[in-house]
Amino acid sequence: MVGHITANDLKVKGITAIEELVTENDGVVITVRGIEKYVILPIQEYNKLREFELDAAIQESKNEIASGKYFSDSIDEHLKRVLNV
After folding, report:
1. Is the separation of the CB atoms in 18 and 38 below 8 Å?
2. 40 beta partners
3. Rounded to 5 degrees, what are φ and ψ at 14?
4. Which of 57, 80, 61 is nearest to 69 (CA)?
5. What are the start and end residues of each CATH 3.40.1620 domain in the chain?
6. C-beta of residue 81 within 8 angstroms of C-beta of residue 73
7. Which of 69, 3, 12 is nearest to 36 (CA)?
8. 2-41, which class in CATH?
9. Any long-range contacts for 28-34 (C-beta under 8 Å, 24+ apart)?
10. What is the C-alpha separation between 24 and 4, in angstroms, rounded?
11. How, if at all, do strands 27-32 and 35-40 pair?
């Protein structure tokens, strides 16, 4: 579950409001004029998300290598291809 707090409440209550909501929930959504704008997560949750993101990138690279979608050029050849020189 994710807690919600308005930007105005955050301005008035400060970090205490965030600490209370994060303790009670998995994260906090900050709304500005009724629109969800920002998310605050405990660092452990953030690190898990980053790890999932990196795992997905590694898997994507493995899939591209397996399907032959890669180059084994020299650095100079690679730069020419990338820079369109």
Report:
1. no
2. 28
3. 70, -155
4. 61
5. 2-41
6. yes
7. 3
8. alpha beta
9. 28/2, 28/3, 28/4, 29/2, 29/3, 29/4, 29/5, 30/4, 30/5, 30/6, 31/4, 31/5, 31/6, 31/7, 32/6, 32/7, 33/7
10. 11
11. antiparallel
User: Hunting for tokens 């790890």 — which residue is that?
Assistant: 51
40-64 per-position pLDDT tens digit = 888 899 999 999 999 999 999 999 9
Share of the chain above pLDDT 90, in %: 44
Q: Looking at residue 62, what is its pLDDT?
A: 97
> What DSSP character marks residue 72?
-
pTM above 0.70, yes or no: no
* Residue whose entry in the numeric block shows the structure tokens 């605050």: 40
CA 37 – CA 4 distance, rounded (Å): 11
Q: List the structure tokens of 80.
A: 């020419």
Backbone angles phi, psi at 3, to 5 degrees: -85, 160
